[in-house]
C-alpha cells in the first residue's frame, strides 16, 4: 500500500515538473515577439491567418489583398503599408503604427485597434463593424463610406478626419474628439476644438 502511495506521489511530482517545464519553454520567448516564419509566409504568400506578427517591422509592405484573419499585429510598424482589401477580421492591431497606411476596402470586422496610430491612414470603404478603436489616433484619416456599425471609439481622435458617408450606427461618439471633422452628412464638426 505504501509503495502505491509513493508511486502516486512520484507521478504527481513528475506531472507537476513536466507541466512547469512546458509552461517555461512555451513562454520563454517574449509575448511581444513576432515569429520570423510568419513574417516570411506573409511576405511570400500574403496568406498568414492566425500569424504572430507582434512588433514586426512591416513599414511600406505591399500586402494588398493579404489574408491576416485573426492575426496578432500588436505594436507592429505598418507605416505606409498597403493593406487595401486585406482580410484583418478579428485581428489584433493594438498600439500598431498604421500612419499613412492604405486600408481601403479592408475587412476589419471585430478587429482590435485600441491605441492604434492611424494618422493619415486611408480606411475608405473598409468594414470596421464592431471593431474596437478605443483611444485610436485617427487624425487626418480618410473614412469615406466606411462601415463602422457598433464600433467602439471611446476617446478616439478624429481631428481633421473625413467621415463622409460613413455608417456610424450604434457608435457611442460622446467621448470621441471631433475638430475640423467632416461628418457622414458632409457637415464639419468642431465640437472639441480649443
Description:
This protein has 194 residues and is mainly alpha-helical. The protein folds into two domains: 1-30; 31-194, 3 Solenoid (Pectate Lyase C-like), CATH 2.160.20.80. The protein contains two helices and two strands; from the N terminus they run H-H-E-E. The protein has helices at residues 2-26, 36-45; strands at 181-182, 188-189. A two-stranded antiparallel sheet has the order 1-2. The longest helix is centred in the N-terminal third of the chain and has 25 residues, at 2-26. The chain is elongated. Mean pLDDT is 89; it is low at 10-30.
Which helices and strands occur, and which strands form pairs?
Blueprint: H1 2-26, H2 36-45, E1 181-182, E2 188-189
Antiparallel strand pairs: 1-2
Strand order of the largest sheet: 1-2
Radius of gyration: 22 Å
Mean pLDDT over all positions = 89
Q: Provide the β-strand percentage band.
A: under 5%
**Could you name the CATH homologous superfamily of the largest domain?**
E3 ubiquitin-protein ligase SopA
- Termini separation (Å)? 80 Å
- Main sheet, how many strands, which sense, barrel? 2 strands, antiparallel
Return the CATH class of the largest domain.
Mainly Beta
Summarize this structure briefly:
With 194 residues, this protein is mostly helical. The protein is 18% helix and 2% strand.
Question: Which descriptors would you attach to this protein?
Answer:
194 residues; single chain; Pectate Lyase C-like; 2 domains; two-stranded antiparallel sheet; 2% strand; mainly alpha
Amino acid at each position: 500500500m505504501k509503495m502505491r502511495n509513493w508511486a502516486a506521489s512520484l507521478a504527481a511530482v513528475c506531472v507537476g515538473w513536466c507541466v512547469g517545464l512546458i509552461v517555461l519553454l512555451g513562454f520563454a520567448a517574449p509575448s511581444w515577439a513576432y515569429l520570423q516564419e510568419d513574417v516570411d509566409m506573409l511576405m511570400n504568400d500574403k496568406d498568414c491567418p492566425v500569424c504572430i506578427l507582434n512588433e514586426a517591422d512591416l513599414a511600406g509592405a505591399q500586402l494588398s489583398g493579404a489574408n491576416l484573419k485573426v492575426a496578432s499585429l500588436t505594436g507592429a510598424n505598418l507605416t505606409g503599408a498597403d493593406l487595401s482589401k486585406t482580410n484583418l477580421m478579428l485581428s489584433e492591431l493594438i498600439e500598431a503604427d498604421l500612419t499613412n497606411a492604405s486600408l481601403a476596402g479592408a475587412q476589419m470586422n471585430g478587429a482590435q485597434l485600441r491605441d492604434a496610430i492611424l494618422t493619415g491612414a486611408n480606411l475608405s470603404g473598409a468594414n470596421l463593424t464592431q471593431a474596437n478603436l478605443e483611444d485610436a489616433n485617427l487624425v487626418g484619416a480618410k473614412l469615406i463610406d466606411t462601415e463602422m456599425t457598433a464600433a467602439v471609439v471611446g476617446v478616439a481622435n478624429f481631428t481633421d478626419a473625413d467621415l463622409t458617408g460613413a455608417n456610424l450606427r450604434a457608435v457611442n461618439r460622446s467621448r470621441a474628439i471631433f475638430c475640423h471633422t467632416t461628418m457622414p452628412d458632409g457637415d464639419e464638426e468642431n465640437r472639441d476644438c480649443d
